[in-house]
Amino acid sequence: MSRNDCEAVLHLHRMFRPRRRTGRGFLTGTVFLDAALLISAFVLATSPFVRKPGILLDLPVSTQAGGIRFNDMVLSISREGLIFFDDELVSLDRLQPALRAAAQAQPGVALILEADQSIQQSTVTAVYDAAAAAGFRQVFIATQNAAQPAP
Q1: How far is CA 106 from the centre of its chain?
Q2: What domain range is 129 assigned to?
Q3: pLDDT by residue (tens digit) across 67-125?
């Protein structure tokens, strides 16, 4: 590039200089905002969500407590005798087909039975039998740890 070319470029640069300068702080803020949104999306995508209906249960107390796996399914029986499975209210006669469909969709998954301690034993036994007939190999009964106070 010759000297005349450089002078021509500088002349054009002076002549077509923008009258207003854009703020540079806005672009820096969007980078941080974008990073924050990506991090929050990653946290939401990888955090475990527990599917549990919003019912109050008074679980029986036990000194033997064990953990559950992440993908285990939960079946809840409220003190009114309402049965909730897969976030839906299910009647006792429709329970076995719903459990069978869930057991076939996720083979090898365990079922956790959360029943209020005031529920009759015959209801819990009927639900347990329906789960075993539907194909669940493991059915656990949820209890409350004896060291934790009742809510």
Answers
A1: 17
A2: 61-145
A3: 666 678 888 888 888 888 887 888 888 988 999 998 888 888 888 888 888 888 888 88
Domain count, the chain: 2
Q: Which residues contact 134 (CB under 8 A, 6 or more apart)?
A: 96, 97, 99, 100, 102, 103
Exposure string for 108-122, b = 16+ CB within 10 A, e = fewer: eebbbbbbbeebeee
98 is a domain residue: yes
Virtual torsion, Cα 103, 108, 109, 111, nearest 10 deg: 70
Question: What's the pTM value of the predicted model, to 2 decimals?
Answer: 0.55
Residue 54 in domain: no
| Higher local confidence (pLDDT), 81 or 39 | 39
Element (H or E) spanning 85, and its range?
strand 83-85
